């Protein structure tokens, strides 16, 4: 992945999560992963288009997702219902959008496609020929992996 | 690493009695041996030479080692060689290989190593007076490796003289007479006159195998056909150097490992190429009518190589549209690359026209910078780069796991246009079919046929 | 996003959602995210606004506006939505009622679309993530 893209995504994730979810968040070491991989149970995905193509995937387990959604809604959600899904989707949207805004400032033109959310056990994501940057984040609700796969057109 | 290692002191083996048929209660019990079986016969090793016993299943195979070297084993952080005594003595090896092997770990004068045996029996305590000299007709093992024979509880134990088996001095002889690893089994193997085939030891080979393993551990360097030539010649000078300075041949740390590899890396690694080197590279680049020229710089580090290449390509193919994809799997290095700044005196004069001073230091002008796209990328993950005219991957293949090296080389082949050039590390050789060596002096280069 | 105790006690002052005549401002929320809709709605109702409808895409939003006209004082309009996007819906509503007060909600770093919306006639815009102060400030600027 192009070097200039890395920081905007890392910073956006950090800033937004800190602001709307958890002031006590930690970032793990970034690394690269090849494409096919299991996801944890809840995966929100935002597509990217424009100068690049790719997607950003927000991967976490159901408990973590519920914890985050509860916090963002200011109420205890007990099941991963439509509101919880919309909340996680919105979080994915906000983070990606902030990264893209930053990238605009640096002169890269990306578009976002509306986010989608997937839930279920034993899911796997595979997109051919794209390696992903993994940004591991530790929240008090559990861990979230932000998986950014972007390539130049 | 499946292992269940016991300290020999806590060894839970029954200690055999010496009372069998011997009336001499006055006999001094002064010799304990760990007994085991090999090819259906009973053997013993002096307990003083045994560090511990263990079960172990996972050995790291060492390429090019002699057959009885099963591989190396990580014993709580120490890398030890593991010898299969059955292979060494031409004894049959049980077929099933899934079960963990029984291993006796020996502590010799200046070496710790593991030996694989069929089963470990117990500790037997005897009087050393009862050990009889080996009979020349005794059996499968060269008499010079046998300390003696002792009878205990109706069993006859052959006591192996481990120091002589693994003696440094017989190493050279062993190197000359490598045993052929035959699949002979059972009786046939028993009949063989082992003396001719049994090496004293291969301490030299073991040292070499150790070094191969340590290079992988400390420096992520995998010895293979791509670099073996250099490594072997380096090994012989290394042994001489270390011995003459009274140091161990073995690599004890990353510092040793890096020192061993010093001289491997290509010229101007991490530096801007000087005029001569840039000219050597440029000479390899053919005339072409194409309006575009694309290059892939694999393992570009902080970017010196990519900027040097960009400058060379600009001079060579000024009017063409030049594009360089440069990548590295080290995040810190590659993050530095797009905005690399340096002090002017580190840059040879040939770059003067392409550099300028900014507020943080000197950097390349956008005429050059814009030719390069720096990416955080690990080549082993694959990519969708379109075919390129030039791949520069100096000292990249050698730092991949051994199994991935050929795959990577094949991928380079696939990613090159016909007639495209691969520049490998100065000490890396590519033998695969389809590559025509076109390198000169300091540059190891190959053309896709 | 805020806990209940964070909301000011609305009895201590005149709520911001009240018109000078004492009736409440009527708001239509057009957003495809249930979360955002809920967020805006919570902030506004706590200030005495009436949320008279929520639509989850531009087409639905446009139709609701027409149906309820002239009983909508303000529309919050998301930019990226399925079926009909917010900019198109804005255009159609302005075409129908040139005095419509519409405020754009954007997360997408789409300065271009925000600018375009302001040119078409949106009164203001809010960039997500939304917080109470920001939402109220921009909305009050648009209606007063």
Query: Looking at CATH, which topology of chain C would you report?
Result: Rossmann fold
Tell me what portion of residues of chain A adopts beta-strand conformation: 25-35%
E-strand count of chain A: 10
Number of domain modules of chain C = 1
Greatest chain-chain contact: A-C, 23 and 19 residues
Question: What structural class do helix, strand and pairing data of chain A support?
Answer: alpha+beta
Q: Which assembly state applies to the chains in this document?
A: heterotrimer
Q: What's the CATH first level of chain A?
A: Alpha Beta
Q: What does the radius of gyration of chain A come to?
A: 14 Å
Distance between the termini of chain A: 12 Å
Total number of strands of chain C: 5
Give structural notes.
The complex is a heterotrimer of chains A (153), B (449) and C (144). By secondary structure, chain A is α+β, with helices and mostly antiparallel strands. In chain A, 35% of the residues lie in helices and 35% in strands. Chain A is globular, with a radius of gyration of 14 Å. The relative contact order of chain A is 0.31. Chain B is of the alpha/beta class and 449 residues long. In chain B, helix 5 (203-219) crosses helix 7 (254-261). With 144 residues, chain C is of the alpha/beta class. Chain C contains five helices and five strands. Chain A binds chain C through residues 16, 19-20, 72-74, 82-83, 86-87, 89-90, 93-94, 97-98, 100-104, 112, 114, and chain C through 1-4, 32-36, 38, 80-82, 107-109, 111, 128-129.
Which labels suit this protein?
heterotrimer; A: about 150 residues; Chemotaxis protein chec; 10 strands; about 35% helix; B: about 450 residues; alpha/beta; Rossmann fold; 3 domains; 7-stranded mixed sheet; 6-stranded mixed sheet; about 25% helix
Short description:
The complex is a heterotrimer of chains A (153), B (449) and C (144). Chain B has 449 residues and is an alpha/beta fold. Chain B is built from 12 helices and 21 strands.
